[in-house]
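Appendix B: a complete holo record

For completeness, this appendix reproduces one full record from the ligand-bound portion of the collection. The bound molecule is nicotinamide-adenine-dinucleotide. The inputs are the chain sequence and the ligand SMILES; the output is the full three-dimensional arrangement of the complex, encoded as structure tokens. No fields have been trimmed.
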Amino acid sequence: MAQKPATLQIGIVGFGHLGQFLTEKIQKDGVDAGLSLAFVWNRNPEKLKGAVPEELVLHSLQDFPQRGADVIVEVCHPQIVKDFGAQFLSKSHFLVGSPSALSDPDLNQQLRHAAKHHGRTLYVPSGALWGGQDIQKLNDCGTLTALLVRMSKHPSCFRLAKDLLGAWKEDEGRRVLISGSVADICPIAPNNVNTMAAAAIAGSTLGFTGVRGELVSDTALRDYHVVEVEVTGVDGFTVKTVRMNPAKIGAVTGNATYNSFWSSLLLCTGHGGRVYLC
Ligand SMILES: NC(=O)c1ccc[n+]([C@@H]2O[C@H](COP(=O)([O-])OP(=O)(O)OC[C@H]3O[C@@H](n4cnc5c(N)ncnc54)[C@H](O)[C@@H]3O)[C@@H](O)[C@H]2O)c1
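The structure of the chain with nicotinamide-adenine-dinucleotide bound, as generated:
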């Protein structure tokens, strides 16, 4: 009889929208998917009461090694990636839900080094990025020459560190908020540009400084986020994709991105000491 593969133990760090979705999904479908919960951590553990069995609640994040997780999933905040990313990689594979954190070149280097040194994989979920694997292939062949990611959303969907939006009116239409390198945009809109960050990781020869991004506010987008990707290669090669991602008004994350995250998690079975877009 064929042997059933071992169950992967998953640690969830953060219990907001994505953390709750993934925790519930593992509890519901984990047995069939070969996943089970090693722990769930949230900075306010009260939020976990009733949703997570007490024995799976991790009270102090420093104690994560005691739970023996195979994969740690950060769905929390870029600061946690900075504070704990390298430690996570010393014990487990690491799915970084906030890849905008990697726009910091020192942290990017530190995590790549930790992955290589410990032989563990730093997974970057493709999120709302369409064609990430194709971009990565072009990149790896050395034939990627330019990459642009334009993200357009209703103004209520933006969470910006700098007030680029100002006062807005429901009938104002389309407005480009910022256009520049992904490195410049990530610190201004860390929660809105994880898709751009994933593109900068897939297109690593251009990287965060070479991949261009654009954030557009559009009051007509009451039901969708729009993600446009423009890829340019050598000899006139171009690909343009437009993804319409259904999203509730005011939501930072499009509906389809939740399932995309789950699919990404299913791929986190270990790909050696490197960065892997999944
Ligand atoms: N990769 C992608 O495509 C993608 C898509 C959506 C969201 N994200 C990112 O994933 C993360 C979680 O998203 P979400 O929609 O679940 O967010 P959320 O706001 O619903 O939840 C975030 C959770 O983290 C906690 N938190 C916030 N700041 C913290 C800090 N500094 N230290 C410790 N805990 C903190 C909050 O209390 C909350 O429980 C965010 O960083 C977001 O930008 C990535």
